[in-house]
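Handoff note, outgoing to incoming analyst
You'll be picking up this chain. Sequence as last confirmed:
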Amino acid sequence: MIAAAGAILTATVVQSATAKTNNTQWVDPFIGTGGDGHLFPGAVVPFGMVQLSPDTDNPMRGVSPQADIYKRCAGYHYDDETIMGFSHTHFSGTGHSDLGDLLIMPITGEVKTSPGTATDPDSGYRSRFSHDAEWASPGYYAVELKDYNIKAELTATTRVGMHRYDFKDAEQGHVLIDLTSAIYNFKNKVLWSEIRQIDDRTLVAYRATNGWAENRPMYFAIQFSQPISNAEFINEDNNRYRCMGCIGKTKHSTIENKAVRKAAGKALKFVASFDNVKQNPLIVKVGLSAVSRKNALENLTTEVPDWDFDKVRAAASQQWANYLDKVQVEGSVSQKRQFYTALYHALQAPNIYQDVNGQYLGVDGEIHDGKSFEHYTLFSLWDTYRALHPLLTYIDPERVSGMVQSMLVHYQQSYEKMLPVWSFHGHETWTMIGYHAVSVIADAYLKGIRNYDVDLALEAIRNTANNPVYDAIPEYKKYGYVPRDVLPESVSITLEYAYDDFAIAQMLKALGKQQEADQYFARALNYRNVFDKETSYMRGKDSQGVWEPDFNPMEAKYMGSYTEGNAKQYSFYVPHDVAGLIALMGGDDAFENRIDALFDTHLSAEMIKEHEDIAGLIGNYAHGNEPSHHIAYLYNYAGKPWRTQERIRQIMDTLSSDKPDGLAGNDDVGQMSAWYIFSAMGFYPVAPGDLSYAIGAPQVPKVTLTLANGKQFTTVAKGLSEANKYIVNATLNGQPLLRSYITHDDIQNGGTLEYEMGDKPNKTWGKAIEARPPSLSEYQ
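Most recent structure output, in case you need it:
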């Protein structure tokens, strides 16, 4: 187990020195919980539906300024000093707030029913805490709640959260359930909630919320390890209260008045009191379901039939070990901590969104039977198509099939007949741009992952890419670009559609549909239509072909021509045809100079004041936001991979660490972590779907990846050091590797990629045209 703050390094070293342990020892869930990482430290299993974690504040409940909403998207922030309680659902590293379902807080002494404020914690039920008495490891979280002298421990299965509360010397303990609490951006609205006590140890509850996802239901089954002594039902909704005819704030003894056991309303809270808690810790089990109370109870009794907290914790840890041990890394303590924590974060989503009986809530609002496949939610596709989904094709290709099937049923159930854009918990948010589900599906198909209806996949891809109701697709097809007078962010949308069209063309070509593939290859060249030769930037223009006036390539404006970026960044977004982009920008040397200018030109805060996501800056390069993630690798396409090697080291050294603020921006559901994993190994998927990986510069001495086919792919960086950051030469399975890229087959076939590192660049390696990563022209 890894302790927070100063105890981290010592604990890790001692553990590794005293026993043979698995790779969970290197994971520190607190990395990324500070700064703008937007990560939570709580208990979760790989791809789990439950993310049981502490909430340190909720800006929309009047406890901190609204400006802090973005900072606390995950419910927890390392800078905070109080905990409101523990809720069961959280986003991992997003730039938007929601979830925080069913907050539970253990209490001793007087029970307050409002959370209070961070500046005045005594006014509510929150408690102070210290990082010196806070612990986390994969599948486990614990903290000492100072104000109550309670040690709270959390663990989880896929669908169940488990709490253990040690009340220490207290004679009586209380558990507050706050159905009003949520991690919200602006709406903060509970549409309806209900809670019912069905026996002396068991509750069932429900609520529907209106947050980022509108009218989102969630059901809960809650069981306690000992009988409830007293139960208090509270409704704070303008004193309107329904509890079997009772009025107001009412306290019931479950022994004296067993008839009165339920309440319904928009502002419900429930307090369970327990006697004799000094003898044994109180254990609480919470099962979740988006379908029904019955399913929530079935999930609970199926996954956690007994009260053995330590057994559940050990099982969660073993699930993580099974995944983390697929990758063996050699390097420093800090390197291992960063790598394995990145892998831990990359394997938290998409989440299972399905009950043990196979049922799940579809985007049509209906209950569906998914017994034939595993159903997933949380598709942050504008972020994750770039590196996370390609990484999952190696870590767990079977799950990738389930994710593709989940996208396909989303398509079938959606009124618009669209693949997901940014969806979670049975709702499409239409957040961000592009139709990047087609990239995920095409990349999976081309890699041989095909355990789904391929004909349906092709139908969904075609309909999505030609859907007349989505983001100016008719205009894109008519003009070959999205006009700025039709839709904001028009340049970014055009560029991302063009890449997606390339991915579609690749899949069609593999299916033997060359004529149709050629149509999409032609659409993939639409990036040329927003390139302004006069300024040499991707620039917005209207439906009359008039370029955007008052053009400033440094400025990132809300509702401007770019999505969370500026022209300097987005002008490099042609991942599928970098050779074509180089030609537009004037050739190899001019292209190199343009990338240098991106990294070396200062970007003032005034230019990006409207976009919180533009973070992790090196000049105009913004590592904290996805449109920059591939750019450092583009020197390879100009025959200058040694420049990529310099930049990758620069990014790693300045924008990554193993501290709580060690991420340059929010993790975006694992994308930032996946970038780190690929880059540490020394290569990156610039254009998923072309089955190539541009070589960067390895950052750890050795990585061995065990593949699903039983083979191993190993990267070795001989002589790697602080000074030796350049690749002098490379071999693949003992044969000289002259190209600055590897292929999917190179990885899938197993073997060893060996880099010889030095302190001076080899400017001839990877320079030849035939040695450069492929571009669109090679697929036509």
